[in-house]
Design a protein that fits this description.
17 helices, binds alpha-D-glucopyranose, six-stranded parallel sheet, about 475 residues, nine-stranded mixed sheet, binds adenosine-5'-diphosphate, Rossmann fold
């Protein structure tokens, strides 16, 4: 098959979260199975430094009542051909979706432009895609534009598949903008707040999200954020396909970001990673052992700092638990200042056992995965989640809230085949209870090591997900 990805993130080119890991991981796995892959991405500001292939095209098209022109540039990323939609005013900004504080006001138009330009490029350059696979609201309008173009006899061989990585981001549209986006009121379902995502859910040939658990949650409110009726209407063809892990990038045995490598049969390297991280962070040796002389666990977290990730109850839980725990904690994230400020402030209160690093650093995210004894993922909701999957492979026992993809990938104690710890209610006390049970588990090293070892044996390769996507592509009408 010739499969074209429309996406707003791709690891190695632009990443703000797991969407980038997912588009790259899946594209590589589909290519490995012999399919032809083309990735279409906006040419963001950071991509102006990348070396391009010499050929390029210009395309012209109408969107609403406006006429636009743009260039399409090309590069190769690990053997996959990437076409970049270039429009300086729309995309050459330093961040993809916001200025660091507020979403760009013209996001609907920017990504409508991206979708329309991408489809016109495919049509004009005679690329016969069997499947056009869009990811999240940024690409959802391609479902509508493809139908419009097919009515004009263009791109007739293509089906549009939409993967929802996060249903909370929908990109609403005001009625007075319909015309600019080439839409009419008839395109929208009655009784649903107009958004780009809602149009994709309605009009895509096939639809999925990134775990079975989250797929089931989306059939009702509040998880569906107002779109439950649309998901229900498509229930029979709406599936959950769990994300994978790119073990080429996320394997402690080969990971180049680590001071020492390790594998399940010999965890000496993991201990070295922990010692190095504690040294780098200046965490006190006096707090590395409890009063019985036993080593205390290191808890780590790497996350976008948003409400989704559970910071509303994580911050009070940490404030309370850090006072009495025998543990150390290192976290890294970027995002909302209303959480980052208190997270930073906690360092003054607990300088011997707690650090928060505000930043986005890929190497450091690998180092934290390797150094930790436990990985914290207390998400309010989680479509799939990748860090808990990475944590399993790195022998860093995940503590997750039992929701969406977290519930599907981490088996909770006390089950015999447990790989981690769950808590159920999104509340301070439930999380503190989970943290305390992790401390107790760590003091029972033989039990801890069994849970750790089982986690390290789990396999979530993208090859498994790719098989399921191929099936979805074939079923799509
Ligand atoms: P989400 O996509 O909702 O952010 P996932 O768990 O699916 O959550 O994926 C998050 C991805 O982003 C992981 O690869 C994680 O390591 C990475 N990530 C998140 N925050 C940071 C950060 N501050 N620095 C480096 N990588 C980060
Ligand atoms: C989204 C979700 C996350 C998922 C990722 C990749 O960002 O929040 O749960 O793992 O997309 O699909």
């Amino acid at each position: 098959m010739h499969i074209v990805f429309l996406c707003s993130e791709y690891e190695g080119l632009l990443k703000t979260g797991g969407l980038a890991d997912a588009t790259r991981g899946l594209a590589q796995a589909l290519k490995a199975q012999g399919h032809q892959i083309t990735v279409l991405l906006p040419r963001y500001g950071v991509l102006y430094q990348r070396e391009l292939l010499p050929e390029w095209q210009s395309i012209y098209f109408a969107l609403g009542e406006q006429h636009y022109g743009c260039a399409v540039r090309h590069l190769l990323e690990d053997g996959i051909s990437v076409a970049l939609i270039e429009h300086h005013d729309f995309f050459a900004r330093s961040r993809p979706y916001d200025d660091g504080y507020h979403a760009f006001a013209d996001n609907a138009l920017r990504f409508a432009f991206f979708c329309k330009a991408a489809l016109c490029y495919l049509s004009e350059s005679g690329i016969k895609a069997d499947v056009i696979h869009g990811h999240d609201w940024q690409t959802a309008l391609a479902a509508v534009y493809l139908k419009q173009m097919q009515q004009q006899g263009k791109l007739l061989q293509s089906r549009f598949i939409l993967t929802i990585h996060n249903a909370a981001y929908q990109q609403g549209i005001a009625q007075h903008d319909f015309k600019n986006l080439g839409l009419t009121p008839d395109d929208f379902a009655a009784g649903i707040a107009p958004s780009l995502l809602s149009l994709g859910v309605q009009h895509a040939s096939a639809l999925n999200t990134v775990s079975q658990g989250y797929r089931d949650e989306l059939l009702s409110e509040p998880a569906a954020n107002g779109l439950s009726a649309l998901y229900q209407a498509r229930q029979s063809s709406f599936v959950g396909i769990l994300n994978g892990c790119d073990y080429g990038r996320w394997d402690p045995q080969t990971d180049k970001s680590l001071v020492a490598n390790y594998h399940s049969a010999d965890l000496t390297g993991k201990q070295q990673c922990k010692t190095e991280l504690r040294r780098q962070m200046g965490l006190a040796d006096s707090h590395a052992h409890n009063h019985n002389g036993q080593k205390v666990p290191l808890f780590v977290l790497v996350s976008r700092v948003t409400g989704q990730k559970g910071f509303d109850y994580l911050i009070p839980a940490l404030t309370n638990w850090l006072g009495t725990c025998d543990a150390q904690v290192v976290m890294m994230g970027t995002g909302e200042q209303k959480y980052i400020q208190p997270l930073k402030a906690l360092q003054q209160q607990y300088p011997l056992k707690y650090r928060f690093i505000e930043g986005f650093d890929e190497d450091f995210s690998h180092q934290l995965e390797a150094a930790g004894d436990f990985f914290l993922m207390p998400s309010l909701f989680e479509p799939c989640g990748l860090n808990q999957i990475y944590s399993l492979r790195y022998g860093t026992v995940p503590i997750v809230r039992a929701t969406g993809g977290l519930k599907d990938t981490v088996v909770a104690l006390p089950a015999r085949n447990a790989t981690g710890i769950h808590f159920v209610e999104p509340a301070e006390q439930d999380l503190i209870q989970a943290l305390k049970s992790a401390e107790a588990l760590f003091q029972n090293q033989s039990k801890y090591q069994k849970v750790q070892q089982r986690g390290m044996q789990q396999y979530f390769g993208w090859d498994q997900a790719a098989e399921k996507y191929l099936h979805l592509y074939q079923q799509a009408q």
